[in-house]
Each structure stands twice: as C-alpha cells, then as structure tokens.
Amino acid sequence: MKIPISTLSLSACLLLSACTLGPDHVPPDTIDTTQLRYQDGWQPVPADSWAASGSWWTAFDDEALSQLVEQSLTANQTLAQAEARYRAAEAQWRQSRGARVPELGAGLGATRSGGSDRSTASQYDARLQVGWAPDLWGRVRRTIEADQAGMQASAADLAAVRLALQVAVAESYINLRALDRQQEILRDTLAGYERSASLTRNQYQAGIVARSDVIQAETQLQSLRTDLYDLQAARAREQNALAALLGVAPVQLSLAEQGTLPVVPTLPRSLPATLIARRPDVVAAERQVAAANARIGVARTAWLPDVTLDLWGGVQSGSFSGLFDAPARVWSLGPSLAQTLLDGGQRSAALELAVARHEEQAAFYRQTVIDSLRELEDVLATLQILGEKAEQQAALLQLAEENERVANNRYRAGQVSFLEVVTAQNITLAARRVAVDIHAQRLAATVQLAAIIGGGWDLEDPVIQSVLGE
C-alpha cells in the first residue's frame, strides 16, 4: 500500500516533536553598497557591528561637547522611552520562551452538596496539575524566533535613538557656537564701524566731507546694532533646544559665550564600509524582516491540531482537617486534541497577511539600504565640496580685507567718498560671516557622516580593526 508523503511527514513530526513549519529567514538581496562615487576603500563588515559604534563625538576634541552628550544620555526622556520599549520587547521574548515549559498549578477546593433526603455532605480536595502542549508543528519555536528578532530590532531602535540624540546635541552645540562666533564678528565689526563713524564726524566738522557721509556711517552702525539682537534671540532659542535634549528646564542650562568653533576632524583617506552594516536603522529593518518571516510559520500551524497533555493528582476528604491524614488519592492523565474545522477563511487570510507583511518588511529593508547609500553619497559630496569652498572663501576674505584697507586709506586721503568704504566694509563683514557658516556646515556634515555610518570613523574601533585585519 502506498503511503502519502503528507502522512509520512505528519508521522515524523509526531515521533520527533520537532517539525517547524514556514520558511527559514534569509536576508533579502539588495543593492551593492561597496561602490561609492565620492570615497574609495569601503569594505563590508559584520551585520552586528553597529553595537561597537563608540564615542565618535570625541573626534571634535571639545570637552564641553563631550560633557553635553554624556549628560543627554542619562536624562533625555525620548531615550528613556526607547529603553522602556526595549525592555518590553525583551520581556515579550522571555514570555514566549516560557511556552516551551510545562505549566504546573495547584488548587484547593471545597464543595457542599445535598440530596432529596435533606442530607448534606462536604467534600474537600487538593490537587497538583501539570499541563503541556508539545510544540509538534514549531508554532512555539517560530513565535520565539519572531519575538527574538523583534527584541533585536528593538535593541537596534534603541541604538538608533541614542545615536540620533548624540547627533542632535552635537548639531545644536555647533549652531550655538556658530552664533557665538557670529556675535563676536559683529561686535568686532561694530568697533570698526564706530571708529569709521567717529572719523567721518571729525572730517565733517573740519569741512572735508559732506553731511551725507556722516549719516551713511551712522546708519551702517545702527543697522549692525540691530543685527546683534537677532543673533541674541537665535542663541537663546538654540540654548533652550539644547536644554530640552539634555532633559532639563531652560533655566537650568546656561552656556557661556565662546567665540571659537571646534576644528573639523581630519577624516582618513579610506573609510571602512561600516556605513550600511553598523547603522541601527538598517539592523532594525533586517530584524523586522526576520520577525515577519517567522510569523509566516506561526500562521501555517493554524491548520494543524493543538495537542495538550494534562496530568493531575490530588487528595480528597470529607473534612478539611483530615484532608492530608488518610485521604482518598485521585489522579488523571490524558491528552486532548483541538482542531478548527471551519473558520470562514480566517486562517487563509491570516497566512496571506503574514506573507504580505513579510514582503512589506523586505521592501522596507531594501529601501532603507538604498536610502543609506544615498545619504552617504550626499554627505561625502557635501564634505568634499565644502572643503573646497572653505579654501575659496578664505581667499575671498583675504581679498575683502585688503580691499577694505585700501578703501579706508583712500577715504582718509580724500580720494573717494564714504560710500566706497561702506561697500568694502560690508563685503568684508559678509565674507567673514559666510566663512563661519561654511565652517559650521562642515562640522554639521561631519556629524551627519558619523550618524550615517552608524556612529563614527575611528580606525581604532575593534570592529573596524577586525575588518582591516582580514
């Protein structure tokens, strides 16, 4: 007699209690991340390398920045929420693992009954009960697999929130210092404008220049004074935003003005390709694919019967005081089988839902990798272009300062009107302010690079070292 293959498979499952339905997880194929337009030398690294991201902000060699980042990691409430979500995911995983172990319960009861002859009787009983549902079809194993992948995704999400917080603090700090430097430039320029206005007034009183030159000099001076208020208001807002990141009230944070910006870190000519594998959001997306894949197996087990083995034993007595003296011992052992025969298509729909969600997560993972590569190309291009722009801006500033000196000398000699001095001074001021903006943009782009590659480019990173040593 020919035995159907399905019967053989079912028999094997029953004998071994080790069948696991559903496909095993295979990370989705995605685009090649080793080829970059603006940077050579990237290499793939292990998928869990995001965990060794390190203290990337120390590359800026700014003690105040380091202190602010460390403070934010202990008090930020968004980070506290992410930590709680991770603990919840870990608890969910432990809960699902508990389904592999038989359940042990105990009970103590009392009943009182009567008959037609108005007699009554009391019955007391105590019992221990063991229940176990063998994981014949791998439902529990797939559930554990899904919850474990979910926990890993939550851990990566926590790392992503932590990294985003570090980046936000660094960016806010850079903005604050850029505003300080802008104010310093305006105050220095204001002193120069005051000297020019004083010179113009003296020349006007001596009959050398017209009254219009005095008005022009004082107008320029007053305009600069009002610009300072805008910078002060912007600085107050930035400091308040930084306080929120640190988890404190604005009144609790007061940073003294500092007219210097951190130096742009020198990046190595060749960066290992930690950009994709170590990014927490990429790790989280891949783990969500694994969780969705495991839930397909859970959905497929819905067509198979649930088998439960129950064993209980206990004692019975007509009086509570004699319950444990010479009681009647009772026991029970027996399996139970439950199978859904008709559900109106719910199981089919649940399986289709699980497959669709897996496909959705796989597409999301692929798109996350593509977006990561685009972001990396963007920031590498930005850093390269801003570096060249900074050099050109430095040359422009040098020319503007020389032009201002020439214009002032010619004005003192009575060769030009004060309008030429005003024009030269405004060009110099604009060049100085743009130079600060470019420097701040380079710092911000470097911070973004740290975020995009998952938290740093330190060649001493043990993960990077393991790759370079291969």
Automatic annotation (TrEMBL):
NCBIfam families: outer_NodT. It is a lipid-anchor. Belongs to the outer membrane factor (OMF) (TC 1.B.17) family. Residues 1-22 form the signal peptide. Residues 65-92, 373-409 form a coiled coil. GO terms for cellular component: cell outer membrane. Transmembrane segments: none annotated. Keywords: Cell outer membrane, Coiled coil, Lipoprotein, Membrane, Palmitate, Signal, Transmembrane, Transmembrane beta strand. It is found in: Cell outer membrane. This is Efflux transporter, outer membrane factor (OMF) lipoprotein, NodT family. One of its GO terms (molecular function) is efflux transmembrane transporter activity. Its main location: membrane. The keyword ATP-binding does not apply.
